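Bench notes, bay 3.
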Amino acid sequence: IEMEQAYYTQFKQKNNDLRAFRHDFNSHVFILQNLAQNEQWEQIKTYLQKLCEIYINNYYISTGNLIADAIINNFYNSLDKNILFKTSGCFSSECFVENFDICTILSNLINNASEALSGKNVHGTKEIYIDIESSVNRISILMKNTSANYEEAKTDNIQTTKNDKKNHGFGLANIRKTARKYNGFIKTAYKNYMFYTYVVLNKPIKTDT
Protein backbone atom coordinates (compact mmCIF):
# COMPACT_ATOMS: atom_id res chain seq x y z
CA ILE A 1 0.00 0.00 0.00
CA GLU A 2 2.85 2.36 0.85
CA MET A 3 4.49 1.58 -2.50
CA GLU A 4 1.23 2.28 -4.33
CA GLN A 5 0.80 5.61 -2.56
CA ALA A 6 4.40 6.58 -3.22
CA TYR A 7 4.05 5.59 -6.87
CA TYR A 8 0.85 7.61 -7.33
CA THR A 9 2.50 10.69 -5.80
CA GLN A 10 5.62 10.21 -7.91
CA PHE A 11 3.62 9.57 -11.06
CA LYS A 12 1.49 12.69 -10.55
CA GLN A 13 4.55 14.88 -9.98
CA LYS A 14 6.39 13.50 -13.00
CA ASN A 15 3.31 13.89 -15.15
CA ASN A 16 2.99 17.55 -14.15
CA ASP A 17 6.70 18.13 -14.77
CA LEU A 18 6.47 16.47 -18.19
CA ARG A 19 3.46 18.59 -19.18
CA ALA A 20 5.38 21.71 -18.14
CA PHE A 21 8.37 20.59 -20.19
CA ARG A 22 6.21 19.96 -23.26
CA HIS A 23 4.61 23.39 -22.82
CA ASP A 24 8.04 25.02 -23.10
CA PHE A 25 9.38 22.69 -25.80
CA ASN A 26 8.93 25.09 -28.74
CA SER A 27 10.77 27.77 -26.80
CA HIS A 28 13.67 25.38 -26.17
CA VAL A 29 13.87 24.59 -29.90
CA PHE A 30 13.86 28.31 -30.72
CA ILE A 31 16.76 28.92 -28.31
CA LEU A 32 18.76 26.03 -29.79
CA GLN A 33 18.18 27.35 -33.32
CA ASN A 34 19.50 30.76 -32.34
CA LEU A 35 22.54 29.27 -30.64
CA ALA A 36 23.24 27.16 -33.75
CA GLN A 37 22.95 30.16 -36.07
CA ASN A 38 25.54 31.93 -33.95
CA GLU A 39 27.71 28.80 -33.75
CA GLN A 40 27.59 28.75 -29.94
CA TRP A 41 28.50 25.06 -29.80
CA GLU A 42 29.50 24.91 -26.13
CA GLN A 43 26.30 26.62 -25.06
CA ILE A 44 24.32 24.17 -27.23
CA LYS A 45 26.09 21.27 -25.55
CA THR A 46 25.27 22.63 -22.07
CA TYR A 47 21.66 23.36 -23.06
CA LEU A 48 21.12 19.86 -24.49
CA GLN A 49 22.64 18.29 -21.39
CA LYS A 50 20.14 20.19 -19.26
CA LEU A 51 17.24 19.05 -21.45
CA CYS A 52 18.43 15.43 -21.15
CA GLU A 53 18.55 15.74 -17.36
CA ILE A 54 14.98 17.00 -17.33
CA TYR A 55 13.90 14.08 -19.53
CA ILE A 56 15.61 11.51 -17.30
CA ASN A 57 14.04 12.98 -14.17
CA ASN A 58 10.60 12.78 -15.78
CA TYR A 59 11.09 9.24 -17.08
CA TYR A 60 8.95 6.47 -15.62
CA ILE A 61 8.45 2.82 -16.46
CA SER A 62 5.03 1.36 -17.19
CA THR A 63 4.41 -2.40 -17.20
CA GLY A 64 0.61 -2.35 -17.19
CA ASN A 65 0.52 -3.47 -13.56
CA LEU A 66 0.35 -1.00 -10.68
CA ILE A 67 2.28 -3.14 -8.18
CA ALA A 68 5.04 -3.92 -10.68
CA ASP A 69 5.27 -0.24 -11.64
CA ALA A 70 5.59 0.80 -8.01
CA ILE A 71 8.38 -1.70 -7.31
CA ILE A 72 10.33 -1.15 -10.53
CA ASN A 73 10.11 2.66 -10.52
CA ASN A 74 11.03 2.85 -6.86
CA PHE A 75 14.11 0.76 -7.63
CA TYR A 76 14.94 2.70 -10.80
CA ASN A 77 14.87 6.02 -8.99
CA SER A 78 17.33 4.74 -6.38
CA LEU A 79 19.86 3.38 -8.91
CA ASP A 80 23.34 4.77 -9.32
CA LYS A 81 23.80 6.57 -12.62
CA ASN A 82 26.53 4.13 -13.66
CA ILE A 83 24.06 1.21 -13.74
CA LEU A 84 22.34 0.48 -17.04
CA PHE A 85 18.69 -0.46 -16.43
CA LYS A 86 16.30 -1.64 -19.14
CA THR A 87 12.82 -3.15 -19.22
CA SER A 88 10.67 -4.58 -21.98
CA GLY A 89 7.24 -6.12 -22.25
CA CYS A 90 4.21 -5.67 -20.04
CA PHE A 91 1.58 -7.52 -18.07
CA SER A 92 -1.73 -8.51 -19.61
CA SER A 93 -4.77 -6.48 -18.58
CA GLU A 94 -6.21 -9.79 -17.31
CA CYS A 95 -3.38 -10.61 -14.93
CA PHE A 96 -4.17 -13.75 -12.94
CA VAL A 97 -1.33 -13.34 -10.43
CA GLU A 98 -2.20 -11.83 -7.05
CA ASN A 99 -0.62 -8.49 -6.19
CA PHE A 100 1.10 -9.99 -3.16
CA ASP A 101 2.77 -12.61 -5.37
CA ILE A 102 3.86 -10.05 -7.97
CA CYS A 103 5.47 -8.11 -5.15
CA THR A 104 7.20 -11.24 -3.82
CA ILE A 105 8.66 -12.19 -7.19
CA LEU A 106 9.74 -8.77 -8.47
CA SER A 107 11.08 -7.43 -5.19
CA ASN A 108 13.20 -10.54 -4.66
CA LEU A 109 14.45 -10.54 -8.26
CA ILE A 110 15.43 -6.89 -7.99
CA ASN A 111 16.99 -7.29 -4.54
CA ASN A 112 19.06 -10.25 -5.73
CA ALA A 113 20.24 -8.35 -8.80
CA SER A 114 21.08 -5.29 -6.70
CA GLU A 115 23.04 -7.44 -4.26
CA ALA A 116 24.95 -9.02 -7.14
CA LEU A 117 25.90 -5.62 -8.56
CA SER A 118 27.17 -4.42 -5.21
CA GLY A 119 29.42 -7.46 -4.79
CA LYS A 120 33.10 -7.77 -5.45
CA ASN A 121 34.66 -8.96 -8.73
CA VAL A 122 31.83 -7.59 -10.89
CA HIS A 123 33.25 -7.22 -14.41
CA GLY A 124 32.26 -4.84 -17.17
CA THR A 125 29.25 -2.54 -17.34
CA LYS A 126 26.81 -2.94 -14.48
CA GLU A 127 23.51 -3.87 -16.08
CA ILE A 128 20.02 -4.98 -15.08
CA TYR A 129 17.47 -6.07 -17.64
CA ILE A 130 13.86 -7.17 -17.00
CA ASP A 131 11.74 -8.73 -19.73
CA ILE A 132 8.04 -9.48 -19.13
CA GLU A 133 5.93 -11.66 -21.41
CA SER A 134 2.29 -12.04 -20.49
CA SER A 135 -0.79 -13.69 -21.90
CA VAL A 136 -4.14 -14.67 -20.45
CA ASN A 137 -2.81 -18.04 -19.29
CA ARG A 138 0.92 -17.56 -18.79
CA ILE A 139 3.43 -15.01 -17.50
CA SER A 140 7.19 -15.20 -17.81
CA ILE A 141 9.72 -12.83 -16.26
CA LEU A 142 13.39 -12.82 -17.21
CA MET A 143 15.90 -11.01 -15.01
CA LYS A 144 19.40 -10.55 -16.40
CA ASN A 145 22.09 -8.80 -14.40
CA THR A 146 25.83 -8.38 -14.26
CA SER A 147 27.37 -10.66 -11.67
CA ALA A 148 30.57 -12.03 -10.25
CA ASN A 149 31.69 -15.40 -11.50
CA TYR A 150 29.56 -18.44 -10.58
CA GLU A 151 30.06 -22.09 -11.24
CA GLU A 152 27.25 -23.21 -13.53
CA ALA A 153 26.45 -26.22 -11.36
CA LYS A 154 25.89 -24.01 -8.31
CA THR A 155 23.48 -21.45 -9.76
CA ASP A 156 20.45 -23.23 -8.27
CA ASN A 157 21.82 -23.04 -4.74
CA ILE A 158 23.24 -19.55 -4.41
CA GLN A 159 23.96 -18.29 -0.93
CA THR A 160 23.64 -14.68 0.18
CA THR A 161 26.82 -12.64 0.45
CA LYS A 162 25.40 -10.55 3.27
CA ASN A 163 26.75 -10.97 6.78
CA ASP A 164 23.28 -11.47 8.26
CA LYS A 165 22.69 -14.87 6.68
CA LYS A 166 19.93 -15.74 9.17
CA ASN A 167 17.63 -13.04 7.80
CA HIS A 168 18.82 -13.04 4.19
CA GLY A 169 19.18 -15.61 1.43
CA PHE A 170 15.46 -16.37 1.06
CA GLY A 171 15.07 -14.61 -2.29
CA LEU A 172 15.18 -17.54 -4.71
CA ALA A 173 13.36 -19.79 -2.24
CA ASN A 174 10.48 -17.31 -1.96
CA ILE A 175 10.29 -16.95 -5.74
CA ARG A 176 10.33 -20.74 -6.16
CA LYS A 177 7.56 -21.17 -3.61
CA THR A 178 5.41 -18.57 -5.34
CA ALA A 179 6.05 -20.10 -8.77
CA ARG A 180 4.85 -23.49 -7.51
CA LYS A 181 1.60 -21.87 -6.43
CA TYR A 182 0.95 -21.14 -10.11
CA ASN A 183 2.21 -24.49 -11.39
CA GLY A 184 5.29 -22.72 -12.64
CA PHE A 185 9.02 -22.84 -12.10
CA ILE A 186 12.20 -20.81 -11.76
CA LYS A 187 15.44 -21.47 -13.64
CA THR A 188 18.81 -19.82 -13.14
CA ALA A 189 21.88 -19.71 -15.34
CA TYR A 190 25.21 -17.94 -15.56
CA LYS A 191 27.31 -17.05 -18.59
CA ASN A 192 30.06 -14.51 -19.24
CA TYR A 193 29.56 -12.54 -16.02
CA MET A 194 25.80 -12.31 -16.56
CA PHE A 195 23.32 -14.04 -14.26
CA TYR A 196 19.91 -15.08 -15.59
CA THR A 197 16.77 -15.80 -13.58
CA TYR A 198 13.74 -17.04 -15.49
CA VAL A 199 10.35 -17.32 -13.79
CA VAL A 200 7.25 -18.86 -15.37
CA LEU A 201 3.74 -18.70 -13.91
CA ASN A 202 0.68 -20.49 -15.27
CA LYS A 203 -2.94 -19.59 -14.71
CA PRO A 204 -4.54 -22.03 -12.25
CA ILE A 205 -7.08 -24.33 -13.85
CA LYS A 206 -10.48 -24.11 -12.26
CA THR A 207 -12.09 -27.44 -11.54
CA ASP A 208 -15.76 -28.10 -10.92
CA THR A 209 -16.56 -29.22 -7.39
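Next record in the batch:
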Amino acid sequence: MAAIVLNLDGLALDYVRLRIRSRAAERRLLASLEEHGQQEPIVVAGREGGGYVVIDGYKRVSALRALRADVVTAEVLDIPVSAALVRSYRRSAQRGLSAMEEGWLVAELVRAWPLGEVAARLSRSKSWVSRRLGLVEGLPASVTAAVQAGRIGAYCAARYLLPLARANAGDCAALAGKVAGLGLSSRETGLLYRQYI
Protein backbone atom coordinates (compact mmCIF):
# COMPACT_ATOMS: atom_id res chain seq x y z
CA MET A 1 0.00 0.00 0.00
CA ALA A 2 1.44 3.35 -1.03
CA ALA A 3 2.00 6.11 1.46
CA ILE A 4 0.47 9.55 0.92
CA VAL A 5 1.12 12.98 2.42
CA LEU A 6 -1.58 14.42 4.70
CA ASN A 7 -1.99 17.70 6.56
CA LEU A 8 -1.29 17.23 10.26
CA ASP A 9 -4.06 19.63 11.24
CA GLY A 10 -6.75 17.49 9.63
CA LEU A 11 -5.95 14.29 11.56
CA ALA A 12 -8.20 13.06 14.36
CA LEU A 13 -6.46 11.60 17.41
CA ASP A 14 -9.47 9.72 18.78
CA TYR A 15 -7.51 6.64 19.87
CA VAL A 16 -4.49 8.23 21.55
CA ARG A 17 -6.22 7.20 24.79
CA LEU A 18 -5.47 3.55 23.97
CA ARG A 19 -1.75 4.07 24.53
CA ILE A 20 0.45 4.90 27.49
CA ARG A 21 2.54 8.02 27.15
CA SER A 22 6.31 7.72 27.54
CA ARG A 23 8.12 11.02 27.79
CA ALA A 24 11.53 9.37 27.31
CA ALA A 25 10.39 7.68 24.07
CA GLU A 26 8.86 10.96 22.90
CA ARG A 27 12.16 12.80 23.47
CA ARG A 28 14.12 10.16 21.54
CA LEU A 29 11.66 10.26 18.66
CA LEU A 30 11.67 14.06 18.58
CA ALA A 31 15.48 14.06 18.31
CA SER A 32 15.39 11.42 15.58
CA LEU A 33 12.74 13.25 13.54
CA GLU A 34 14.64 16.50 13.88
CA GLU A 35 17.84 14.89 12.63
CA HIS A 36 16.58 12.40 10.04
CA GLY A 37 13.00 13.35 9.23
CA GLN A 38 10.07 10.94 9.19
CA GLN A 39 11.25 7.43 8.31
CA GLU A 40 8.07 5.41 8.92
CA PRO A 41 4.58 6.40 7.82
CA ILE A 42 1.85 6.68 10.39
CA VAL A 43 -1.27 4.54 9.86
CA VAL A 44 -4.67 6.17 9.37
CA ALA A 45 -8.18 5.08 8.47
CA GLY A 46 -11.02 7.06 6.94
CA ARG A 47 -13.64 8.50 9.30
CA GLU A 48 -17.36 8.55 8.74
CA GLY A 49 -18.16 12.00 7.47
CA GLY A 50 -14.69 12.51 6.00
CA GLY A 51 -11.16 13.00 7.17
CA TYR A 52 -8.74 10.54 8.71
CA VAL A 53 -8.22 9.16 12.19
CA VAL A 54 -4.77 8.07 13.37
CA ILE A 55 -4.59 4.36 14.14
CA ASP A 56 -0.85 4.08 14.80
CA GLY A 57 1.80 6.79 15.04
CA TYR A 58 0.61 9.12 17.78
CA LYS A 59 4.13 9.80 19.04
CA ARG A 60 5.25 10.70 15.52
CA VAL A 61 2.30 13.06 15.07
CA SER A 62 3.01 14.74 18.41
CA ALA A 63 6.72 15.08 17.63
CA LEU A 64 6.07 16.46 14.14
CA ARG A 65 3.68 19.03 15.60
CA ALA A 66 6.32 20.00 18.17
CA LEU A 67 8.71 20.52 15.25
CA ARG A 68 6.05 22.71 13.59
CA ALA A 69 5.68 20.40 10.59
CA ASP A 70 2.63 20.85 8.40
CA VAL A 71 2.43 17.41 6.82
CA VAL A 72 2.95 13.75 7.64
CA THR A 73 3.49 10.67 5.50
CA ALA A 74 0.72 8.17 6.13
CA GLU A 75 -0.44 4.74 5.08
CA VAL A 76 -4.20 4.81 4.56
CA LEU A 77 -6.13 1.66 5.45
CA ASP A 78 -9.29 1.29 3.40
CA ILE A 79 -11.11 -0.70 6.08
CA PRO A 80 -13.43 0.22 8.96
CA VAL A 81 -11.76 1.83 11.97
CA SER A 82 -12.40 -1.14 14.28
CA ALA A 83 -10.77 -3.50 11.77
CA ALA A 84 -7.86 -1.05 11.44
CA LEU A 85 -7.38 -1.10 15.23
CA VAL A 86 -7.25 -4.91 15.14
CA ARG A 87 -4.73 -4.83 12.31
CA SER A 88 -2.58 -2.36 14.24
CA TYR A 89 -2.75 -4.60 17.33
CA ARG A 90 -1.57 -7.60 15.31
CA ARG A 91 1.30 -5.57 13.84
CA SER A 92 2.36 -4.19 17.22
CA ALA A 93 2.14 -7.50 19.09
CA GLN A 94 5.91 -7.84 18.92
CA ARG A 95 6.30 -4.37 20.52
CA GLY A 96 4.63 -5.70 23.61
CA LEU A 97 1.62 -3.62 24.55
CA SER A 98 0.88 -3.54 28.25
CA ALA A 99 -2.13 -5.39 29.64
CA MET A 100 -3.75 -1.99 30.23
CA GLU A 101 -3.30 -0.95 26.59
CA GLU A 102 -4.77 -4.27 25.50
CA GLY A 103 -7.69 -3.68 27.86
CA TRP A 104 -8.37 -0.23 26.45
CA LEU A 105 -8.32 -1.72 22.94
CA VAL A 106 -10.77 -4.45 23.96
CA ALA A 107 -13.04 -1.85 25.57
CA GLU A 108 -13.05 0.08 22.30
CA LEU A 109 -13.67 -3.00 20.15
CA VAL A 110 -16.62 -4.29 22.19
CA ARG A 111 -18.44 -1.15 21.08
CA ALA A 112 -18.37 -2.56 17.54
CA TRP A 113 -18.54 -6.33 18.08
CA PRO A 114 -19.67 -8.90 20.66
CA LEU A 115 -17.02 -10.22 23.07
CA GLY A 116 -16.66 -13.51 21.20
CA GLU A 117 -16.00 -11.77 17.91
CA VAL A 118 -13.44 -9.46 19.52
CA ALA A 119 -11.67 -12.54 20.86
CA ALA A 120 -11.67 -14.19 17.43
CA ARG A 121 -10.40 -11.07 15.67
CA LEU A 122 -7.57 -10.64 18.18
CA SER A 123 -6.79 -14.39 18.07
CA ARG A 124 -7.34 -14.61 21.81
CA SER A 125 -9.64 -16.62 24.03
CA LYS A 126 -12.91 -15.16 25.23
CA SER A 127 -11.66 -15.39 28.83
CA TRP A 128 -8.51 -13.40 27.93
CA VAL A 129 -10.66 -10.68 26.36
CA SER A 130 -12.96 -10.67 29.39
CA ARG A 131 -10.01 -10.39 31.80
CA ARG A 132 -8.50 -7.49 29.85
CA LEU A 133 -11.85 -5.73 29.83
CA GLY A 134 -12.24 -6.26 33.60
CA LEU A 135 -8.78 -4.82 34.13
CA VAL A 136 -9.66 -1.43 32.68
CA GLU A 137 -13.31 -1.25 33.69
CA GLY A 138 -12.45 -1.68 37.38
CA LEU A 139 -10.20 1.36 37.72
CA PRO A 140 -11.46 4.84 38.57
CA ALA A 141 -11.19 7.33 35.70
CA SER A 142 -8.53 9.35 37.54
CA VAL A 143 -6.28 6.27 37.79
CA THR A 144 -6.81 5.43 34.13
CA ALA A 145 -5.84 8.99 33.17
CA ALA A 146 -2.68 8.79 35.31
CA VAL A 147 -1.67 5.52 33.64
CA GLN A 148 -2.33 6.92 30.16
CA ALA A 149 -0.21 9.98 30.99
CA GLY A 150 2.64 7.76 32.17
CA ARG A 151 2.49 9.00 35.78
CA ILE A 152 1.59 5.54 37.11
CA GLY A 153 2.97 2.33 35.64
CA ALA A 154 0.58 -0.13 34.02
CA TYR A 155 1.92 -3.01 36.11
CA CYS A 156 1.47 -0.99 39.29
CA ALA A 157 -2.13 -0.18 38.36
CA ALA A 158 -2.99 -3.78 37.53
CA ARG A 159 -1.16 -5.37 40.47
CA TYR A 160 -1.97 -2.99 43.32
CA LEU A 161 -4.52 -0.35 42.41
CA LEU A 162 -7.10 -2.56 40.70
CA PRO A 163 -7.61 -4.89 43.71
CA LEU A 164 -7.90 -1.83 45.92
CA ALA A 165 -10.39 -0.22 43.51
CA ARG A 166 -12.59 -3.29 43.70
CA ALA A 167 -12.68 -3.01 47.49
CA ASN A 168 -12.75 0.78 47.86
CA ALA A 169 -12.60 3.07 44.81
CA GLY A 170 -12.08 6.17 46.95
CA ASP A 171 -9.03 4.74 48.70
CA CYS A 172 -7.70 3.58 45.34
CA ALA A 173 -7.98 7.07 43.87
CA ALA A 174 -6.30 8.57 46.96
CA LEU A 175 -3.42 6.07 46.82
CA ALA A 176 -3.05 6.60 43.07
CA GLY A 177 -2.80 10.35 43.63
CA LYS A 178 0.06 9.80 46.10
CA VAL A 179 1.81 7.31 43.79
CA ALA A 180 1.60 9.71 40.83
CA GLY A 181 2.49 12.78 42.87
CA LEU A 182 5.57 11.19 44.45
CA GLY A 183 6.60 9.28 41.31
CA LEU A 184 6.74 5.97 43.20
CA SER A 185 8.04 2.86 41.47
CA SER A 186 6.03 -0.36 41.32
CA ARG A 187 8.17 -1.78 44.13
CA GLU A 188 7.58 1.26 46.35
CA THR A 189 3.86 1.16 45.55
CA GLY A 190 3.81 -2.52 46.48
CA LEU A 191 5.32 -1.75 49.88
CA LEU A 192 2.77 1.02 50.46
CA TYR A 193 -0.08 -1.22 49.32
CA ARG A 194 0.97 -4.01 51.71
CA GLN A 195 1.04 -1.52 54.57
CA TYR A 196 -2.45 -0.37 53.62
CA ILE A 197 -4.03 -3.80 53.53
